[in-house]
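User: Design a sequence. Structure:
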């Protein structure tokens, strides 16, 4: 699964005729070869022909997994699935763990390739579909930190596929609700949590869903103006977003989420002092979150209040100690204070948490790598 080479199809060799014993070495028969069905074999990248002396079980397994992943409706796909399940009965757990590890290390393409293989082996598996959505969500967050746009649409589509499962998949519905909460799509989040509560299979998660549903409804966060404001700012139309969120705040002046969106739009426009005021109002009304403190710190930093920005970032970090956005901003602040050693330490911490983070890589490459 580490690279993709060409696939070749071989007739069943004499050495493989008959019943196959488990690769565990316990001696039990787990599969019977059909000599009429060719065996797909994945070659190493760059190879065009197979030396039969180099044929291995790993090459055969990889070839079969590739076929069912790329062509799940292939006439021989069920046969290849039975083979894989026979010799690798724990393959779902093995490949899931591999995908999660790749995603944690920032190798999202490989994580998604592994999950694609699992989708071929386990069509419409709720667990596989949810893991794919989670990886796409994590990838989209990494892209956003790098200043890139567009990744969230793929994650949204993946969650919608999870939500379409029949019967409903409670854990998938719950995670989709949190995805939409983070995107401040509170109307969709409300729908997810309302759907989850009657089918909940985890009392703690049910309690969380009920609390979030009450918050959405009590603060009128499913108001169309709120969603329009968020979408406009996210799409680079901050002025339009500010008009929408001010209309929302006229209706709901005590809703801290509205003041947060106002501050976010002001920050996007470089109106630092106004942004500071909006985020301070957010905190006064109950929005004292690590995100609020981080956004407030950016405005303070850009307006020259470096000591105040440091205080806000340190408070945010105490609440969310592995948030790489906060740690990155502490690195930027250290650079503004002329402390390259401290800045390098923060950016290295970011890379420990997320090795592929482009912002930290860029800063360390531009003069900090040898400190």
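Assistant: Done.
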């Amino acid at each position: 699964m580490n690279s993709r080479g060409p696939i070749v199809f071989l007739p069943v060799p004499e050495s493989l005729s008959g019943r196959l014993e488990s690769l565990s070495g316990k001696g039990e028969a787990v599969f019977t070869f059909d000599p009429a069905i060719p065996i797909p074999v994945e070659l190493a990248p760059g190879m065009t022909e197979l030396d039969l002396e180099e044929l291995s079980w790993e090459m055969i397994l990889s070839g079969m997994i590739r076929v069912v992943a790329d062509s799940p409706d292939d006439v021989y796909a069920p046969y290849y699935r039975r083979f894989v399940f026979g010799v690798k009965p724990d393959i779902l757990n093995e490949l899931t763990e591999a995908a999660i590890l790749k995603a944690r290390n920032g190798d999202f393409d490989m994580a998604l390739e592994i999950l694609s293989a699992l989708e071929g082996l386990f069509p419409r598996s709720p667990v596989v579909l949810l893991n794919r959505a989670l990886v796409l969500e994590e990838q989209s967050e990494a892209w956003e930190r790098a200043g890139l746009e567009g990744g969230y649409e793929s994650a949204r589509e993946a969650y919608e596929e999870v939500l379409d499962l029949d019967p409903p998949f409670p854990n998938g519905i719950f995670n989709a609700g949190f995805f939409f909460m983070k995107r401040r799509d509170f109307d969709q989040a409300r729908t997810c949590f309302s759907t989850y509560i009657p089918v909940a299979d985890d009392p703690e998660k049910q309690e969380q869903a009920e609390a979030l549903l009450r918050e959405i409804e009590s603060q009128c966060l499913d108001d169309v103006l709120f969603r329009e404001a968020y979408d406009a700012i996210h799409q680079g139309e901050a002025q339009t977003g500010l008009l929408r969120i001010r209309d929302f705040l006229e209706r709901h002046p005590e809703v801290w989420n509205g003041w947060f969106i106002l501050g976010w739009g002001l920050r996007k426009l470089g109106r630092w002092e106004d942004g500071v005021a909006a985020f301070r109002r957010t905190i006064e009304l109950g929005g004292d979150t690590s995100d609020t403190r981080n956004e407030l710190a950016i405005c303070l930093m850009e307006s020259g209040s470096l000591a105040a920005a440091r205080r806000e970032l340190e408070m945010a970090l105490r609440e969310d100690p592995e948030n790489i956005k906060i740690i990155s901003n502490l690195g930027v602040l250290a650079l503004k204070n002329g402390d390259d050693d401290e800045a390098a330490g923060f950016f290295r911490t970011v890379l420990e948490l997320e090795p592929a983070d482009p912002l930290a890589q860029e800063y360390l490459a531009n003069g900090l790598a040898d400190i």
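The beta strands are 7-10, 19-21, 29-32, 39-42. The radius of gyration is 26 Å.
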